[in-house]
Amino acid sequence: MIATQLPAIQVALPLLAAPLVLILRNGALAWSVAVAVSWLSFAVALALLLRVLDGGTIVYLLGDWAAPWGIEYRIDEVNAFVLVIVTSVAAVVAPYARRSVEAEVSSDRHYLFYTGFLLCLCGLLGIAITGDVFNLFVFLEISSLSSYLLIGLSRDRRALTAAFRYLILGTVGATFYVIGIGLMYMMTGSLNMADLATRLPAVADTTTIHAALAFLTIGLALKAAIFPLHLWLPNAYAHAPSVVTAFLAATATKVSIYVFLRIFLTVFSGASIFESFPLADLLIVVAVLGMFTGSLVAIYQSDVKRALAFSSVAQIGYMILGISLLSTAGVAAGIVHLFNHALMKCALFLALGAVALRIGSARLDQMAGIGREMPWTMAAFTVAGLSLIGVPATVGFVSKWALVMATLEKDHVLLAVLILLSSLLAVIYVWRVVEVAYFRDRPDDAATLSDPPTSMLVPLWIMTGAAVYFGLDGTRVLDVATAAATRLLEGWP
Fold this sequence. Notes:
Layout: H1 6-24, H2 27-55, E1 58-61, E2 72-75, H3 77-104, H4 110-129, H5 133-152, H6 158-188, H7 193-203, H8 207-224, H9 233-239, H10 242-267, H11 273-276, H12 279-299, H13 304-324, H14 328-359, H15 370-373, H16 375-389, H17 395-409, H18 413-439, H19 454-472, H20 475-490
Antiparallel strand pairs: 1-2
Helix pairs in contact: 1-2, 1-4, 2-3, 2-4, 3-4, 3-10, 3-14, 3-19, 3-20, 4-5, 4-10, 5-6, 5-10, 6-8, 6-9, 8-10, 9-10, 9-13, 10-13, 10-14, 12-13, 12-18, 13-14, 13-18, 14-16, 14-17, 14-19, 14-20, 16-18, 16-19, 17-18, 17-19
């Protein structure tokens, strides 16, 4: 009986826990609830993925109201995979959060932090699991509003400005999205994704649907921080509490990329939008520009968190490039990189959170010599940095290899070359950190440092170890990603 209710439980767990944490108003109890809920959510997500891989798509009707009148949760290989990504990151980040939050958030706001964390987790899981475009908008707003709160809770006053900018651009993106689905509803009378996929082809050539497509494209590009609509992301990542940066970098943009995939390859699957418009070519250009611009700007940053934020813009470019190839290999490469980037970028930001705990900053000029005094932390940063570059035996190599093979399969030799060249740019900004941390001396008057507590070091190395493990044995992830890509290109039954 419980197994049949897993889709509802997936969303209900963090949704019900959030007000409980708010009522408790106790930071330690709130943290305990957040950890328990995160791990339970991870277990539910794994169970759903195994069920999907074994028995196919799961359809869950809320309140037994049949779609399209009622809301349904529809889980296939694609969103089951995304659910695992989000919950696994939450399960690792939640134990790490206690010491990091104590250092970076005022003590009277700790319970508010964990309330926001659980609401954000609920929103991200709801986005991934729902089969209704308006219900998706509701969850999108839940995750966004809680993200603004989480960013603004930092002791750094610049976080308030970053959160406000994110709020403005996030609201613009959400408005564009809801206008797009409103226009689709006006022409089809449905909000159910599977139902829309069958109704849209009949009206695909109308001006209204063309306008809907334009609004959806801009709205989702803003939410996913796709170049050049990424301006909210660097400040949000740089000034948010370290654990928030790690969580959002590994999940929020990934879920937005999933929505991008779902809308364009499932909802519009029968509308031939890629044949009617040069959308794929436009996405390729945007992706390549993002790959190079993000990496080039990252090289010149003096704040390492900000550098990695611009790096995320480049990595999102790789995902969009894979999707724009419109082949099973290309879409699978994009999905693989979605998973792999979550691992390595989460590890990098967790390492910077440990550095911030000890030196109170992530500025490059204050990290001189810390590699010798914080060996475990900086070793993890270096390994994750090598993965970001794409060194063999790391997940970054698996992603880049899959993407290069996908471009060569489509005879895009120039794109393969550009992928390799842009990857080399990551060597520069990763090496800047390694060089300062290991090959420069600490100032004579600097305080003696040490690695962070075990509660922070273990989650950091879980993510770092995963970045190596799935780099050495990425077969399972590739198989799931290929099944997900096949499902997307075939559409829902």
